[in-house]
Each structure stands twice: as C-alpha cells, then as structure tokens.
C-alpha cells in the first residue's frame, strides 16, 4: 500500500494521481554521456580529459541516484476532499491541502516544460509555500483540483 492509499480518510476517493516526468532524468543522462565520452579517451593522449570525464561520470551517478530517490519517494494525488503532495524517502515533506481551503496553486513551465508537458506546481496554504518540480501534465493536475473544488 502506498502513501496516498494509506492516508485516505473514510469516504475519500482518489480522483487523479500525477506522475513525475521523464525529464527529471535528463541532467544525469547528459552528464553520464559526456563523462563516458571524455573518460573513454586514452590517458596517453590527454590525462586531464580522461580524469575530467571520470569526475563528470561520478557527478552523473550521484545525480542519477538522487533523482531515482525523488522518483521513488514522490506521490501526488487529488481526492474528492483534498490534494496530497508528498516527497522524500528518508526525510519526508508532505502537504495535505483541504480543497475547501485551497488558497493558491501556481504552475510554472519553461519553454522545454511547455514542449515536453511538465512543470513545477507551487501550492500556497496559510502563508506556507511548497514547490514540486517535474510534474507531468501540470495543467491536468490543476484542472482536476478545480473540478473537485467546484
């Protein structure tokens, strides 16, 4: 049982579950490709290029592990009573927003976000602001919230 299902209230139904976009993994993939290309150069030709490639490979692996943990530890859902936003595997950040008290929901999309259909959702509740990046199809997420409100 996942976090969302475990925390449903009596009579509460899941209406929409948002996913993280694959673009979350683009930075680690690019770092790994560049690092592999540079590290594959023979040390005899340029030792500096080879070791720079190994360093970039290391950063690419660290970034990949970090983003895999983000993917595993994230859950975003709209129910008929509230919006549930949770991130984290080791430490947890969770926002339960009661639909009746929804103050603000902002969506930010860069040019790449518009092209590939992902964005950052920022939720404002009682002066506290929480941002959740790389949400796939953020406009649908917002639409589902608005349908449940009204």
From TrEMBL:
Pfam family, one: bPH_2
Domain YdbS-like PH: 75-135
Keywords: Membrane, Transmembrane, Transmembrane helix
Transferase in keyword set: no
Membrane-spanning segments: 20-39, 51-70
Keyword Transmembrane attributed: yes
Annotated protein name in UniProt: PH domain-containing protein
Organism: Phocaeicola plebeius
